Amino acid sequence: MALKTATEAPAGGAQDFPRLTDYLGRIVILEPLEEKTVDTKFKDASELTECVAWYWDEKKKAVEEIGQVSVFWRAVRAQLEVAVKTHDQVVGRLVQNGRRYELDPVTDATVAAIAEKFF
């Protein structure tokens, strides 16, 4: 096995991780993994939900993976908590109303189209 010595830190940083805010206005699918409490630079003991995320490419009619994301937004976390009692994933259009982020409902036809490609 060959080893390479690290000579410098890789380019990028936290911005290289997927951020849901990059998908504002798009339809996202979230599958909660676990709830955590972490300290952040903004607040000690912040609650979050770790999720695997995908988005619905409306032009291609395809599901594309975003990756693992941390959801801090209370409204979205509450929507996840309610929905996962009966379903593994939650789908909705990610919107921002003032400072609040939430998932707006999508049509039954959109859910059916996503389910057809997703499963």
Structure description:
The protein has 119 residues and is α+β, with helices and mostly antiparallel strands. The chain has one domain. The chain has helices at 74-83, 108-118; strands spanning 27-38, 46-57, 62-71, 90-97, 100-104. Strands 3-2-1-4-5 form a 5-stranded antiparallel β-sheet. The longest helix is centred in the last third of the chain and has 11 residues, at 108-118. The radius of gyration is 17 Å and the shape is globular. 18% of the residues are buried. The model is unreliable at 1-15 (pLDDT under 50).
Short description, anyone?
With 119 residues, the protein is α+β, with helices and mostly antiparallel strands.
Name the beta content range.
35-45%
Average per-residue pLDDT, rounded, comes to 84
Euclidean distance between termini CA atoms: 39 Å
Shape: globular
Please tell me the total number of domains: 1
* Regions with little confidence, pLDDT below 50 for 5+ residues: 1-15
Number of strands: 5
SSE inventory with pairings:
Layout: E1 27-38, E2 46-57, E3 62-71, H1 74-83, E4 90-97, E5 100-104, H2 108-118
Antiparallel strand pairs: 1-2, 1-4, 2-3, 4-5
Question: Keyphrases for this structure?
Answer:
alpha+beta
